User: Fold this.
Amino acid sequence: MNRMQRATLGGKLSAVLVAAGSSVGLGNIWRFPYVAGNNGGGAFLAIYILCVLLLGLPLMIAEFTVGRATHRNAVGAYRTLDPRWSILGYNGVLAAFLILGFYFVVSGWTAEYMVHSVTGELGRLGSAEAYAAMFENFIRNPWRPLLYTSLFVLATHFVIALGVQKGIERSAKVLMPLLFIILVALAVHSLLMPGSSEGLRFFLQPDFSKVTPATLLVALGQAFFSLSIGIGTMVTYAAYFKPDTDLRRTALNVTILDTLVALLAGIVIFPAVFSVGIAPSAGPPLVFVTLPGIFNDMPWSMVWSSVFFLLLIVAALTSTISLHEVITAYLHEEWHLNRRAAAWTTTASTLALSALASLSLGVLNDWRIGGLDLFDSLDYLTANILLPVGGFFTCIFVGWCMERKSLRAQITNDGRLPFHIERLFYFLLRYICPAILLIVFLDNLGLFKK
Ligand code: PHE
Assistant:
């Protein structure tokens, strides 16, 4: 498929918005607080921010470059540049499939919480224990989460079916800024709760004595997950960017936005966690147990929580769309299915996987992969292994194998933009990023243990 046949996205703003739409999602608001809470708070945050700057930003630019240079899906893009590297695209398609397996489930929880907010049910419980019990009951139930997950999968399907331009662009444009505003309001409220300063200290004050090799890997994986990199999403999206989109600036803006949202989510969650006495290491339920308590404390709690969960649904949707698009574009362009068939194939297969992941928290909880249930193992395998591996090989490919001329042409828009940081960019991509990734991996395999 050539450039003319591909849809292009609107203006400059739209490139930032769709990429931010993919990045900002449950990764920031659900996953970030839970992994930060599990890994000691402040020190995790510091390492996370370093990972975002040193690895995330250069890699996002690198992925944009590959996508816009080829105008293809993740597999086709790498194949066009060098057939031996199409494996990198396959890694992305596989990761997108596995991520959707648990991401759809959490999106379903969000949808259920919105419904409970509207009906006022979420406001009726009083204590943190009651919210924890309600959440446990809900995720163990075999039917209800399945229903909401399926609805969410279908919603994603229909946005994809409407076409990249119309569906994605419109929803991202209006609702992302609104989510941001609500988060700021919640953060202010959370900071005013009694005993909040302890939570703030936990989140912002690093205690490096708690850092282990696993902390580094988890921070790195979270950075990749949150920025949607190492998986071909940004390759796939950049294929729709216009020739005059400034790739560096787009990546910088998306990275800043995404990190701000994660920071804000932490400032909303941790003060409240400490204020009501929940353990910060509660794991995946953390946000779902903490948030209702915050809302309960506010005037008009039903309105706040309904609007918040609605916006979270939209943020999740713009991310599931991008993951779905990685697989759909691949099936459409590489297998020559028409877009409809490609989208339905993706929808049906991810629905099946997410149904299993959802049941793995209840009736199928005995199924274990390396000691984890299916839900947790999909989360672990993708964020801590597939994305960093994808990121490592993306550095090697773009830093060492891709023609420098073609990379420069993309970054400078054929010479129209300056590229002052070219040397720094190459240095990071060729040496620093792969070295960090390799060391963190080897460290986790126990190679540096005395
Ligand atoms: N970045 C998304 C989030 O934070 C999740 C995602 C990961 C989307 C990888 C696309 C690719 O919610």
